[in-house]
Amino acid sequence: MARVETERKGRSLVVTINRPDVRNCVDGETAQLLFEAVEFFRRDPDLDVLVLTGAGDVSFCAGADLKNVESLAARPGVEESGPMGISRITDLDKPTIAAVNGYCLAGGLELACWCDFRISSRSASFGDPARRWGVPLIDGGTQRLPGIVGLGNALYMIETGIVIDAGRALQMGLVQEVVPDGQALPRALELAEAMSRYPRVSLRNDRRAVYEGLSLPIVEGIRLEADIHRSSLTAPELSDGLRQYAADRRPPFPRPPHGP
Length: 260
Description:
The protein has 260 residues and is an alpha/beta fold. The chain contains 12 helices and 10 strands. α4 (107-114) crosses α5 (141-149), α5 (141-149) crosses α6 (151-160) and α9 packs antiparallel against α10 (218-228).
């Protein structure tokens, strides 16, 4: 049984951490397989969205395998891609979604924050309890979490090691939707399917402009946005889309859930 499984779903790739017996903790072999899955997704022009999830309903990922932590540091390429396999990959040009079921802790929280946004099951929980053993956040948590939930909320989670439920995570903005248990992956795939139907040049350029503009002053960010979108404005998909609009053809778009 592979420690990471991949499955095509239309134009999406589902990447599943498959170690439910240890709450989907990541060791060196698992980290390498995650890296390989992301690189496969990167190279395949027929895949538009990656959905990251964990096997079973108990855990998305409870972090690094602390009983085999040496294997993470020994993995070839760890300095470039990160101990958990993918956290230091910052040049992916296609959308990613985390479908979170159960525990999303420590390095698992960092993996979820690596994704563009997060869909959570109602019983999911989030936090960094590895704080108790002095395990640092070295898979992007100190850099991504403040941008997602704000400085105070990030330091609250990082410094206290507190574990919060899905409702509090939604309130903070850590997750974007809370759905019934067992529905996080189907909902993520529903959104991924809708995203894959959109014209891809402008969507990917919007995503790129967001990430590359995060650290820029507003004047430079606006200039960056204009530069990036030169290709969007000349893409054939824009002309086709405007013709659809003029012909009153309105493709459907997803609606948010009614509530947690």
